[in-house]
Amino acid sequence: MGKYKQSFIQGAMILLAAGIINRLLGFLPRITLPRVIGAEGVGLYQMGWPFLSVVLTITTGGIPLAIAKLVAEAESQGNERRARQVLHISLAVIISLSLLFTLLIVISSRWITTYLFTDSRVYYTFLCMSPIIPIVGISSVYRGYFQGRQNMIPTAVSQTFETLVRIVTMLLCSYVMLPYGIEFAAAGAMFGVLIGEISGLAILLYQYSVTRKKYNVYQSAKIGSGNGGRLDTLKKIFHISVPVTGSRLVGSSSYFLESILIIQSLAVAGVATAVATSQYGALQGMILPILMLPSALTYSLSVSLIPSLSEAAARKDMRTIHKRLHQSLRLALVSGAPFAVIMYVLADPITYYLYDQSDIGVMLKMLAPVALIMYLKGPLEATLQALNRPGIALRNTLIGAIIKLFLIYWLASKPNFGILGAIMAINIHTIVVAWLNWSSVSRMLKFSMNAADFFKVVVAMGITGLGCYAVMNSNWIQQPFPRFIYACLLGFTIYLVCIAMLKIVDRSDLRRVPWIGKKL
Fold first, then answer.
1. What's the pLDDT score for residue 332?
2. Are 182 and 34 within 8 A, CB to CB?
3. Tens digit of pLDDT for each residue in 159-185?
4. What are phi and psi of 50, to 5 degrees?
5. Which of 35, 27, 57 is nearest to 174 (CA)?
6. Long-range contacts of 355-364 (CB under 8 A, 24+ apart)
7. pTM
């Protein structure tokens, strides 16, 4: 079994490598799609995602997390039969729910797109979106299974392959359908996503067929780790998954209501439907993807944290729990800081060179200051879930969602704010939820971070920002694009020098990096 199992840091680094590759590759259609179908087409394409997020939360929700926890426990007990039982029961539940909701969406899609959205042209995107539900559901089961094994390679490989396929199919399908109208071009982009999801699932099924032969289902389990019946396993799955699903449902429902409220509030503010669709597409399809690029690390840390903390909690090993949480938060802080600075200082040239639209740079400049808090939020929420406190995460998410939706309705409907009012609401929501999660984790574990680490990172960010600004606004290079590239490179270089001189990262930290740490 050990052949496929990685340590916490190794698993996080594998997912990080895949996440970085996927984010960079995934940015290709983000850059090119607006040039093919325009911001309005991107808005139609993006409108379907919040609703899909709600449905996927209901159908999958916390089941992958439950699988990861139960499989990790079964493996620690040497109980392979129980691990297989968890997988098979979860598949039956997910497939049943996914097919039911897919059918309901197909039947009610015309009503949903006519009455819930201000732009009924999203109907065709909805139809192409519905088959994604069972595909993503089945994929999530196998990813949860592999994560429970602490084998992150199948997840990383499938995500990378899925991204590669999606890049080609999204652009090809949207381009082919463009002559028939912008609504068909947006639907073509969603159909390309469906093809990518199918390819990712195929890789997971292949990986499972290869690795399952390495596990002996007939091996004897350790004393006190009996299999239990199918009903007992089903109860455990729902006991873990239902609170997590509730927490995530609050987040996804908030995302869905947010999309409706933004469009409706912009209409109240006097913004035309086509313009409102374009502004929403710019925010959701262009700005937020830039902001979430560095979250590849926090996502990998969150996924690796759950089985690692679950094992440590089962042993009541508080020292390991503190160690893993400190590693995760420190890595998220140190790695996210330079991106937050560069996105703030160079917001206008970033949006111009990526999308040929410098006027939307103000959105990125407003969101960048809270980006670092956004990156810290993931590991904190994963900690609450791994330690069987999903109810606390649900409460915190619900409080933040209520505040965000109220502020969107209040601010975005004002003509002098418009879409910028929605961004203010998103920023406040991020700060509130992160602070609530931090308070919950610190009280529960009696955990604290060294204030000096935060101070040093802030100093490094300040120096980095000044360096980027000085280069970008100097005249020593006449051409603006080379000056922009030099500003980015110099910014990262200054930051690396700062974290070394301030000893934010030392030799012991480098040694923990798998494969190349000792050489560095």
1. 79
2. no
3. 888 888 998 999 999 999 999 988 899
4. -60, -40
5. 35
6. 355/31, 355/34, 355/35, 355/286, 356/35, 357/34, 357/39, 357/282, 357/286, 360/282, 360/286, 360/287, 362/420, 363/282, 363/283, 363/287, 363/419, 363/420, 363/423, 364/287, 364/290, 364/291
7. 0.71
